[in-house]
Amino acid sequence: MSLYTNYSGVTRMKIYISVDMEGATGVVRAEQTRSTDQEYSFGKAMQTHDLLAAIEGAFDGGADEVLINDSHARMINISPEDMPGSEGRLRIISGTPKQLGMMEGVKGCDGAFFLCYHAMAGTPAAVLDHTISGKAVYRAVLNGRESGETGLNAAVCGYFGVPVALITGDEATAREARGLLGDSLLTCEVKSGISHAAASCLPPETTFGMIRERASEAVRRISQGLAPVPDTGNGDFCLDLTFHYTSQADCAEVPGTIRLDGRTVRIEGKGMDTMRRWAGSLISLGGSVGF
Fold it and tell me: pTM to 2 decimals?
């Protein structure tokens, strides 16, 4: 366990929540996740709804502190005004760029929740499936295993010894996460994908209680040493990023990378934190191409 001790010598538990938007209750289309679209107000409200449930559950389960990382798009979706007054026990990391992107601030926490997550690019019957950038990434393979945001972010947690205790999203996301982390992982499925932009959704009044209950149980599992810590071996990584277009790979082919084929760039190194920084940077470079 990595339960930390504060300045008064009291052992405390700090929970980290990386919160995306595509996997939130009721969200099914891209218009609901883009700040430039009218429907974004719904997506933002549902993201906040799921987050509040997770926060309440974390404190119910015995957490002393919760650190939230706003992890969607521009990463300014969570309003501090919407967060509960928690007597200094709650902090929000907001804005971009961040060196570790969706995992900024996770080092030193006692357990992580991945909230409102979605399945990797290419997953059938998965709501808004993509990997970091839908317009840039066709496939990401980490150490020989195809990975989405769940896999890439879990690798960072494992490298820092932080267990991943809860993942919420659609059923496809839950299957992907359990396949990666095992059946000891707690998941909360708020909808079942029909296609990329359609799903059978549970109502907010139902999912709030579900998420709160699972979050509370996740904290208890962390305290008992039962939440899975992703295995990252010695931290060596080989990351292959396949883009949609050769022009995107052209932009991502910078010194230190290896061009495997027309659309694929490889980067190798040590440290899953370094891997995540490379992933974010190379995907940003590839995604900068205009058509």
Answer: 0.95
In 129-263, where do the E strands start and end? 137-142, 145-146, 164-170, 186-195, 198-201, 236-243, 258-259
For the beta sheet containing 14-19, the strands, ordered from the edge strand earlier in sequence to the opposite edge, are 90-93, 65-70, 14-19, 111-117, 164-170, 186-195, 198-201
Rounded CA separation 193/10 (Å): 44
Q: Name the CATH architecture for the domain at 4-128+149-223.
A: 3-Layer(aba) Sandwich (3.40)
What average pLDDT does this structure show over 191-200? 98
Structure confidence by residue, pLDDT tens digits, 123-159: 999 999 999 999 999 999 999 999 999 999 999 999 9
* CA distances, 8 to each of 3, 11, 65, 145, 171 (Å): 14, 9, 15, 44, 43
CA angle 156, 60, 168 (to 5 degrees): 45
Rg (CA), the chain: 18
